[in-house]
Structure formats: C-alpha cells, structure tokens
Amino acid sequence: MTTTERAQGGESQPSRSGDAPAQAPRKPVPALSAKSLRRAVRREKIAPYLFLTPWLIGFFVITLGPMLYSFYLSFTDFSLLGAAEWVGLDNYIRMFTADPKYMDSVRVTLVYVFVSVPLQLAFALLLALVLNRGLRGLPIYRSIYYLPSLIGASVAIAVLWRQMFGKNGLVNQVLSWFGIVGESWIGNPDTALGTLIVLNVWTFGSPMVIFLAALRQVPEYLYEAAAVDGVSKWKAFWHITLPMLTPVVLFNLILQLIGAFQAFTPAYVVSGGTGGPVNSTLFYTLYLYQRGFTNFEMGYASAMAWVLFFFIAAVTAINFWLSKYWVHYDD
Amino acid sequence: MLVGFGLLMLYPLIWMLGASFKENEFIFTEVSPIPNPVTLENYEQGWEGSGIGFGTFFLNSTIVAVLSVLGNMMACSLAGFAFARMEFRGRRIFFALMLATLMLPQHVLLVPQYILFAELGWVNSFLPLVIPKFLAVDAFFVFLMVQFLRGLPRELDQAAKVDGAGPWQTYWRIILPLTMPALATTAIFTFIWTWNDFLGPILYLQDPRLYTVPLGLNAFLDASGDSAWGPMFAMAVLSLGPLFGFFLAGQKYLTSGIATTGLKG
C-alpha cells in the first residue's frame, strides 16, 4: 500500500486539507465523510490484530493447544496408532513406583543440575570479578570465555568430548605424563556423568557476561565512600559488590537451573542415545525421548514432561522464596 | 594467569582443529595440537561421510537456519511492535500469556507437537522446524523486541501518525529501521540455535537425505564408531565454522543481547 492511499483513507487529514486554504477556507475537512471515518476507525482497531496474527496462530495452535492436549494425554495410554485409552493416574503412579529406570534418570539429572550449575556460576562470578578490574583487552578475554557457551550444546563438541574422555583420549594422554594409566572416563559408570558436568561448567561464559554487565552497574560512589571511610578492599567486596550482585546471581541461577534440567544433546551423543553405561548418563529428557519416540509411549512421555515442568516450576518458586533471605534489592 | 586459563579453556578446540589435519594414528598419541605432517585426507574422507555426503547436510542446515532466521525476524518483530506500541483489547492478557510461554519447557510440547505435525503429514520435512518460527513461537525474541521498543521514544510514532502514516507505515518506515540492533540479535541467536539444534531434527527428519549437520555428524559417529576420529573432527570443525563466523561478526549484538535478556548461546 502506498503513502497516498493510506493518507487518504486514514484518519489524519490536517496536512492535506492545508493544501487548499484559498478555495475553501470554511470547509477544512471535506474529505472526511462519515463512511471513511468509520473505515479509518475500524482499520485502527483491526491493525493490532493483523500485526499479532502470526503470534496468535502460533500461540493457540503450536503452544496452548498442544499443551492442553499433552495434559490430557498424560492420563492415557497412547501409541500413535489407534485411540488414546484413558488410564487415570496410572502413568504417574507407574513412574514413581514401578519404573526403576525412571528413578535412575531423576537421580542422574538431579546430580547433574545441582553439581554443575553452582560450579558453573562460581567460575562465572570469579572470572567476571577478575576481568572487571579494568585490565586491557577485556573484549578479547570476554569473547574467549564466552565462546564455549556458544557451542557447548552442539554435536561437534559432544563428539570431541567423547574422544577426549575416551580410553586413548586427550585426557588420558595428559595423565600418562604423570604415570597414570586412565581407563575410559565415558565407559565407566562412576565417571561418565562427571564428563558431562565438566562440559556444562565449561560453558560458564554466558552467565559471566551477565555478571560483567551487572558489575558495571555498581555505582562508583559507593566504593569512593568506602575508600574515604578507610574500608579495606576485601570488606568493600563483601559489603558492596556482593550484595549489589545478588539479584543477578538469582537471575543466573534460575536461568541456568532451568537450562540444565532440560539438557539433552551431550548425553545423547556421548552415550550413543542409550544413557549408558548402566544409565549413568540417562538425563531426564533423554529417557523421555526414549519412552516417547523409541517406544512410542506417548501418554507416559507426556506424564513425564508434566512432572518435569512442575519440578522446574517448584525449584524456581523455591528459589524466589529463598531469595528474600539473601538477595539485596536497592531501596 | 588469565591468558593461561583462557588457553586451557580453548585448548580442546585448538587441539581438535589441529587433530583434524593429522593422520589418524597421531590423534591418539599427540597432545600437541600442531599437525606434522599436515594432511587434508580427513576432510576429503569426512566430506563423503557414510553414504550421503556432508554437502547435502550443510545445504539442509543452511535452508533450515536461513528460513528460521527470516521467520523469527518477521514474526517476532511484528508481534513485538503490536505489544509495545499498539492499543487493543486483550493486550495485557496476551502479553502475560506470551511471558508465560517463556517459562514453559519445550519438552511439555514435544509429544503433542509431534502428533500435530504427524497428522499434518509434515514429518520428514523441514516444515515442523521452520513454520513455528514464522508464527513467533520463540517468545524470547518477542520479549526482546518489546524491551527494545520500550527504549525508543514514543514521539517517533506519534509524529508519524500526525503526518498521516498508518500503523503499517509507522512500523515499516520508522520502527523497523530503528530496531536493527534487536533484529540482529534475533538473527544471530536464531541462527546459532537452529544450527546447533539436535532434538528438533532428530524427531522430525528420518530420511538421511534431509539430515542437518548435527544429525549427519551423529550418524557418522554411529556408523564408524570410534575408528574414524580424523574425518569426524574435520566435519565437526566445519560444522562449527558458521558459528565462529557469526560469533566474530556479531559479538557486539551477542554480548549486549545476553546482558539484556540473559539468553544462553
């Protein structure tokens, strides 16, 4: 649609009517008939929905609809073929009472999340503090440390990990310098999960960038005032920097926890899709995938997804609730 | 010390790059990343893949990534404009719902979406990966756009309106050019995410001719087991290439994007 078309049909005519003051001084808005006014108003009302149409379709058809359907499916037995059969709470009961592999996946995921996320955030905070001391080449360091979080979830890195922590991999080659003969880290059920934890810690760059941005927001006058009062650097860190950072710590914590609960690719590739050895890398999402798309137990997989959803929501809510005890908000 | 730690962090990557130019026997014996002698055999052998070559996989990945970028840029910016700048009935409710979808784990939707796309006959095509992007399903980017627009002075739209511009013109001529930074962030992150995506393709692409690069790599790993690390590394390095490109080109947008919204790479 061109400019003139719009302007003629549109509601605002002042600039246009100003063109012909000599001929018709008493009739400034002759073009604005009742009909075109109505049309203009209608267009004004409809336009937002036109802009929103893609999102509206996406929301109802690809998000809300499937969400409700998934909730329904979680109470059924459904294998894609035939009709879904209502089984009430059976899927949920089976999960917690009759599926030891499920409990394995829960345990593996909890260990992964609650070990790797705190470590990852500790590294992120430490490096951000060091980088924030105003040294030269900050953008370069920031990029170097950020790079792994960009590619950490890719298959290429999972492939690399599989070699590095294999029997004759890079890690064991380095260890052999010290006379240590290592076994395959990935083949051993006691260490396999550890390699994936290392991978997640390795991607501390994205929370680090957020910490860095937050460190810049700490007002300089606070430190100046502290220096005037003769407060030591360590105390200034403890009483100024850290409290000012707590909202961002909470933000990063919640974000990384949610992300870690849903990790999938590394476990899949490193274990060849099995979650082995002996279920030691059977992430929750990997087991969900196996149930849903290898065994086609769509009802059971949906129930698993909802348990995951409620668990993540609960952990997030608990974090918010706990935050009032340690997060400092500016008055 | 910082340099040392940085090097240690990047060492696996540097080593893999070196190893991709090494003869297979040296990959398991050398900690040094420097290949000697240098060979391109891994790249030649890897490119052939197992059956279907990586040329096909790269083409497929490019199609999916480019369409996803286009879709997200268009749909999310339209929705963001409506939420940030327009008055309409239900705006508050829809905005709250949009924010709520931010927190919804995608796994809850995995099964029903699969059933939906299977009903539509879209399994074994790129449609399930691409069409949702044109429907602004990635709420992250809608939110990003809204946040960005809130930072632009409202006088701009009002002036346009006084000059007789309709909503579409205001959006196309005034707002869109000003939101370039947010659009760039959207494009870069969408590219990286779709290029890396594994779960989506493994669900919907069963025909090896449709495989994206991550699926191709995974299939290659399955087929050759632990015997062909050289070619595998060569292809892994190539698969990371476009990511490095975007990373270098868009660093400014990446770091500011993460800092404002907490997006993870």
Record the SSE blueprint.
The complex is a heterodimer of chains A (331) and B (265).
Chain A: H1 3-9, H2 14-17, H3 34-73, E1 76-79, E2 81-86, H4 90-97, H5 100-131, H6 138-151, H7 155-164, H8 170-176, H9 192-202, H10 205-217, H11 220-228, H12 233-261, H13 265-270, H14 284-294, H15 298-326
Antiparallel strand pairs in A: 1-2
Chain B: H1 2-19, H2 24-27, H3 41-48, H4 54-85, H5 91-103, H6 107-119, H7 127-134, H8 139-150, H9 155-162, H10 167-178, H11 180-196, H12 199-204, H13 213-224, H14 229-249, H15 251-261
Question: Describe it for me?
Answer:
- The complex is a heterodimer of chains A (331) and B (265).
- Chain A contains 15 helices and two strands.
- Chain A has a domain of 205 residues: MetI-like (MetI-like fold, Orthogonal Bundle).
- Chain A is globular, with a radius of gyration of 29 Å.
- With 331 residues, chain A is mainly alpha-helical.
- Chain A has a two-stranded antiparallel sheet.
- Chain A is 69% helix and 3% strand.
- The N terminus of chain A is likely disordered.
- Chain B has 265 residues and is an all-alpha fold.
- Chain B contains 15 helices and no strands.
- Chain B has one domain: MetI-like fold (Orthogonal Bundle).
- Chain B is globular.
- In chain B, helix 4 runs parallel beside helix 7, helix 4 crosses helix 8 and helix 4 packs antiparallel against helix 13.
- The model of chain B has no long low-confidence stretch (mean pLDDT 89).
- Chains A and B meet through helix 1, helix 2, helix 3, helix 5 and helix 6 of A and helix 1, helix 4, helix 5, helix 6 and helix 10 of B.
Strand order of the largest sheet of chain A: 1-2
Number of helical stretches of at least 4 residues of chain A: 15
Please give the number of β-strands of chain A: 2
**Structural class determined from secondary elements of chain A:** mainly alpha
Helix proportion of chain B? over 70%
Assign the structural class of chain B, choosing from mainly alpha, mainly beta, alpha/beta, alpha+beta, or little secondary structure: mainly alpha
Tell me the count of domains of chain B.
1
Straight-line N-to-C gap of chain B? 26 Å
Mean pLDDT of chain A: 87
Question: What are the segments of chain A in which pLDDT stays under 50 over at least 5 consecutive residues?
Answer: 1-29
Helical residue percent band of chain A? 55-70%
Helix count, DSSP H or I runs of 4 or more residues of chain B: 15
Annotated CATH architecture of chain B: Orthogonal Bundle
Overall number of strands of chain B:
0
Largest pleated sheet of chain A: 2 strands, antiparallel
Tertiary shape of chain B: globular
Question: What is the CATH architecture annotation of the domain at 96-156 and 183-326 in chain A?
Answer: Orthogonal Bundle
The CATH topology label of chain B is MetI-like fold
